[in-house]
Design brief:
The chain is mainly β. The chain contains no helices and 29 strands. The strands form two sheets. The protein has a 15-stranded parallel β-sheet that branches. It has a 14-stranded parallel β-sheet with strand order 2-4-6-8-10-12-14-16-18-20-23-25-27-29, with no helix packed on it.
Length: about 290
């Protein structure tokens, strides 16, 4: 990518940014809070940028198919990327840094796709309609969390990922989390509020010590194929939502430490309580499968 474009405040761009497979080298969004750069072109591709930098706390709106190598901020917590109802976004090399996260990425009805193994540092990932955040294997997120309107939006983990930040919120569950692909280990370091958490393969979903999940009135933790997927509690947890389903159990549940309190049924081929762990079930709950204390 060659060339630099600087936006100092409010701007509207009617045509494409970059074309013919040639990226603009650097786009600097330097406007203060409340200033908006609106890239209005709705084709796919419409926006090809190598480096998108926030010099201020402004917002850039993407209305078409956008392909951006990296996004950075000069000040911690500055800069918002907003993907409109007609847009989608692919990112290839990273978002922010541990010391300088951006403020937010917001997706409407389509997809923000983190391609390859990269790190995403953004205070907030926001789903404003029924859109999706898609992480390839090796991509990780660190921030406050992923928020949405209750019962909408998807988080898709295509391989091994670590999510540090709350997913959903009490009273505002994300619709679906797809995780646990073949050979993958997906770790959640903060509470998870999702109507459905679905194993797409034979991989692992791990909940860190102190992490709770709540599936509300949704279907709980399910599997795409009977007998696949392992759920591991790495420490204390309190949960709400069935694990597996009668007739379509997951492969295994492991309690590796602390007190895990389950107020729901477990349908797994094996449930193992390892040394140092305690499993407490509410009244009338069912364990469908073998129970082992190791």
């Amino acid at each position: 990518g060659n060339g630099t474009v600087n936006f100092g405040g409010n701007s509207n761009v009617a045509g494409s940014v970059g074309s013919g497979g040639l990226d603009i080298g650097t786009v600097n969004v330097n406007g203060a809070s409340g200033k908006i750069v609106n890239l209005q072109y709705t084709a796919d591709p419409s926006t090809l940028i190598n480096n998108l930098n926030f010099g201020g706390n402004g917002t850039i709106i993407l209305n078409g198919g956008s392909y951006i190598n990296s996004i950075a901020s000069l000040t911690s917590g500055y800069g918002t990327v907003q993907v409109s109802a007609t847009g989608n976004l692919n990112i290839y090399a990273g978002v922010g840094s541990a010391l300088l996260p951006i403020a937010a990425i917001a997706v409407n009805a389509d997809t923000v796709h983190f391609n390859g193994a990269l790190n995403v540092y953004a205070n907030d990932l926001i789903i404003t309609n029924n859109g999706s955040f898609v992480f390839d294997s090796g991509s990780n997120y660190t921030g406050n969390g992923i928020t949405t309107t209750d019962g909408t939006g998807r988080l898709e983990l295509g391989g091994t990922s670590t999510i540090t930040g709350t997913v959903g919120a009490s009273g505002a569950n994300i619709s679906t989390i797809s995780a646990g692909a073949n050979g993958a280990t997906d770790i959640f370091n903060n509470n998870v509020y999702a109507n459905n958490i679905n194993f797409t393969g034979t991989g692992l979903i791990e909940l860190a010590n102190g992490v709770n999940y709540n599936t509300g009135s949704g279907t709980g933790i399910t599997t795409s194929n009977t007998g696949q997927g392992t759920l591991t509690f790495l420490g204390a947890s309190s949960t709400g939502g069935n694990i597996g389903q009668s007739g379509t159990p997951i492969a295994a549940v492991n309690v590796n430490g602390g007190i895990v309190t389950l107020n729901n049924n477990i349908y797994a081929t094996t449930t193992t309580v390892n040394s140092g762990g305690t499993l407490k079930l509410g009244s009338g709950e069912t364990i469908g499968g073998a129970l082992t204390v190791a």
